Amino acid sequence: MNCNNAIEHLDRMIFEEVPIDAGFRQHIDTCSSCSQAYKDALKAREVMDLVRRLEPVLNNPDEITDNIMAAIQQDPHKTAFVPPFLSVLLAAASVALFLLFGYEQYGLVKKVSALEITFSAVNSDSRYSNPQRLASTFDINCAGISFCEIGRLISKVNGTSPLAFSSFKKQMNQRNIK
Amino acid sequence: MMPENLQKTVECIRNGDHTAFRKLVMTYQQTAYRLAFRILGNEEEARDSVQESFIKIWQKIGSFDPAREFIPWMYRIIVNTSTDRLRTIHRHIMIPIDVVSQKLEAIQQNDSTRSANNHELAILIKGLAEMLPEKQKLVFILRDIEGMTSGEVELITELTETSVKSNLYHARKSVRERLLKILEKERTIQ
Fold first, then answer.
1. Residues B83 and B105 in one domain
2. What number is the ipTM of this complex?
C-alpha cells in the first residue's frame, strides 16, 4: 500500500466503518506522516461518533404536543389521496376535453372569418345585387350554417345589425339558394 | 412504534382521529426535534419547525399513499420544513474554529450521558456543517449523522443516487478539512 491509498482509506475511516487490513497496518507502521494522519483520523472519528451519539434535549415536550393539538383542532385534512390510475384517467379526460373544445372553437373562428370576408364584400361590392354570383364567388354553403346564423354571427363580430342580411336572404330564397 | 401499530395509527389519523394523532406526535416529536435541530442548529427554531411539521403532517395526511412507507414521508416533511426555515434565518456566520474547539472539549469532558448542553451541541454541529451548501448539508446530516442508508436519503431528499453520492463526497471532504482544523486547534490549546 502506498501513501495515496492509505490517505484515501483514512478519509473513509472518519465517516464509516472500514476494516483495517494488514497492508494498511504495515504501511502506517513504517510511514511517519501516514501514522500521524491515522491518529488524526481516529480523533476525527471520535468527534463524529460524539455528534451522532448526543441527542439534543427537547424541553417541555408536552407543551409542543399541546400546541400542535390546539392548532389542528379546527383544521380539517385539506387534500385527498388520488390513486395513480385515477390521476392518469383525469389527465386523459382533461386532454380529451381540451381537444374537443379546442376543435369546436377552431371551427367557429374559421366560420366567422369566412363570413366576415363575405359580409365586407357584400357591403362594399355591387355583387350584393347579384346573390347567385355572390354564392358562387364566396362559398357560403360550405360554411354549413344558415343565413339567420350568418346575420347573428356577423352582428356579434362587428356589431352590424342582422337586418342587413334580410334582403339578401330573401333574394337567395327566391333563387332557391340555401 | 411497531410497524403494524404505526399503520393502524396512520389509518385512524387519515379518518380524522385526534387521539391517534396525539399518539403519533408524542412518539415521534423527539426524533423530529433531533433532525430539525441538526439541520437548523438552533433550539427555538427546531421547536417551531417540529410544531409546523406536525401541523403539515395532519393537513397533508389525506394525500399520503398508504401503500408507501409512512416514516420517510414524515421525515421528508420535517426536512423540507426545516430547510425552508433555514433559508429564512440563514445568516452565513461562520463559527470560529477556536470556539468550536472549546465547545468540543467541554462536551468531551461531560460526556457521561447521551445528553449534552443544547447550546454546545448546536455550536459543534454548526461548526462542522454550517459552511456546506444546502444539499450537501442535508445529505451529510441524514447519512453521516442520522445514520440513514443511501436509499433512505434518496427517498427523503428526492435526489438521485448519483446526486446523493456526489453531494456526500463533497460534504465529507469539507467536513474532514474542518474537523482536522478543529483538532489541530485543540492540540495547540493543550
1. no
2. 0.86
